[in-house]
Amino acid sequence: xxxxxxxxxxxxxxxxxxxxxxxxxxxxxxxxxxxxxxxxxxxxxxxxxxxxxxxxxxxxxxxxxxxxxxxxxxxxxxxxxxxxxxxxxxxxxxxxxxxxxxxxxxxxxxxxxxxxxxxxxxxxxxxxxxxxxxxxxxxxxxxxxxxxxxxxxxxxxxxxxxxxxxxxxxxxxxxxxxxxxxxxxxxxxxxxxxxxxxxxxxxxxxxxxxxxxxxxxxxxxxxxxxxxxxxxxxxxxxxxxxxxxxxxxxxxxxxxxxxxxxxxxxxxxxxxxxxxxxxxxxxxxxxx
Length: 288
What we know:
This protein has 288 residues and is α/β, with parallel strands linked by helices. The chain has helices spanning 3-16, 32-45, 61-74, 89-93, 98-113, 138-144, 150-153, 158-167, 193-208, 237-240, 243-255, and strands spanning 23-27, 49-55, 78-82, 120-124, 215-219, 227-231, 260-263.
């Protein structure tokens, strides 16, 4: 099927997702996939669209503002919905199914506070065909709650999403993947709000130093503060070692409470921690 044909399928699915007087809520993270979905929903349904962004410690503050800006640019009202996944013991334990508990919290909160109000009759999210080949336990939560996935149903992959985004003039067309902050914590180590805040501030520091694609992995230790394992694209590694940037990076991350600062020579690997998936005891030895 051609890319244009897939786009038409998405638009038709969106038009059929709600009744003529009803509205669709789009779970909106501000990433490439959900931004395209929101734009296509606006095209298909006009003003009968609501963007909903889960607002919790796992959302980077810069991403919160990006959601506000992008929704406004598309002319879609945005609601920030407070979610409390960090109050769920299974989420904090950070086993391989953490995303399932996070998405369950989101979709249950949507069902409780958004669905059935102000004409909202359905919820859609930005899963794509490529997500089927990755570790995505959150997709199970979406299926359990009847959440629609029009991009996935039309067979759109991530590169196709970027092409359509560029054609639509969306600023996110070349945006680096930006998964939630909890993805920086190795499986088996406890996810806590203060840990997520430290990661958010650490990654904001790297962006201030001129890096665009990055991860700061947060490794707790039984004794002392955590280790920051910085991942950058291989081409950016020499820049990180320039004396002025190296000193700013080292002093800035230490000021945030990191005991050691390391630069991963393997480079940036989105989803790299999935290679470590296994049941591990929760590590809680890091001081607050």
